[in-house]
Amino acid sequence: MNTSSDCPLCRDAGGLLVLQTPKWRVIRSTDDANFPAFYRLIWQAHVAEFSDLSAADRSLCMEAVVRIEQVLREALRPTKINLATLGNVVPHLHWHVIARFDWDSHFPNPVWGAARREVEGRAEAMLALPLADLDRRVALALS
């Protein structure tokens, strides 16, 4: 597997590890409490672009992204799911899968955009189930 010691996504998990396979890992981002249901699928090999993957690996990657999205939709009933693969800061292939709600601090703006409102209390408390249960559902759907 290609890795780079100066890449933060090669050095560590990148968040709370939910599941890891030889090809990819899924983490839940713990960086911003405003977006508790924020998952990332990170390709294990250090590749920068989706087109760097073989056709079979692209299919494997997208199937995993779809399964994460399905779990979030079924478990949380969000207003929208955001999918993104930016990689501008870390040139390491990863997909963001983010459950968005009309009550969240930035909606309908991107999570990286300007906040539009304050969220009273913790956003995590507004979810339909505890994050540990959501993590287990994501892991089960990908196993």
Cross-sheet strand order for the largest sheet: 1-2-3-5-4
Name of the CATH architecture: 2-Layer Sandwich
Structural shape: globular
For this structure, the CATH topology is HIT family, subunit A
What's the CATH superfamily, by name?
A: HIT-like
Helix content: 25-40%
Spans of at least 5 consecutive residues whose pLDDT stays below 50 are none
Look at the structure and give the mean pLDDT: 92
CATH class placement: Alpha Beta
Distance between the termini: 22 Å
Q: What fraction of residues sit in β-strands?
A: 15-25%
Order of helices and strands: HEEEHEEH
Give the biggest sheet: 5 strands, antiparallel
* SS content category: alpha+beta
CA gyration radius, whole angstroms? 15 Å
Could you explain the architecture of this structure?
There is one protein chain. The protein has 143 residues and is α+β, with helices and mostly antiparallel strands. It has one domain: HIT family, subunit A (2-Layer Sandwich). The chain is built from three helices and five strands, in the order αβββαββα. It has helices at 8-11, 55-76, 131-142; strands spanning 16-20, 24-28, 38-43, 80-84, 94-100. The longest helix is centred in the middle third of the chain and has 22 residues, at 55-76. The chain is globular and about 45 Å long. The two termini are 22 Å apart. 25% of the residues are buried. The mean pLDDT is 92.
Notable traits:
globular, alpha+beta, 3 helices, 5-stranded antiparallel sheet, single chain, HIT family, subunit A, 143 residues
